[in-house]
Amino acid sequence: MLSSRTSIILFILLFSIQTGTAQVSAPDFLCVRNDTLFWNNVPNNCGVFNAYNIFTSENEDGPFTLLEQVTDPTQDFYYDNVLPGTVVFYYLTADFNCPGQEVLTSDTLDNLLPPAVEVLSATVNGTETDITWLPSTAPETGSYIVYRETATGVQPVATVDENTFAYTDVTGDPTSGAESFYVLAEDNCGGVSIFGAEHRTVFLEIATADCEDFVTLNWTEYLGWEEGVDNYEIWVSNNGDAPELAEVLSGETLNFNFPQPDNLVDYCFTVIAREANGSNSSASNEACIFIDIIQPVRDFSFTDITVNPDNSVRLDWQWGTNADITAYDINRSTDFNAQNLLLTENITPPLTAQNIFLDDTANPETEQLYYTVTAGDACGNVGGTEVGSPIFLSGTATPSGQNQLSWTELLLPGAETASYEIFRIEEGNPVSVGTTDGQTFTFTDAAEIAPDAPVACYFIRAAGEVTLYDESTRGFVSNSPRICVEQNSRLFLPNAFAPNGVNREFRAVVLFPETVDFEMQIYDRYGKQIFVTTDPQTGWNGELDGRIAPQGVYVFHARVTQTNGRVIEEQGTFLLVK
Question: What's the whole-model pTM score?
Answer without folding.
Answer: 0.52
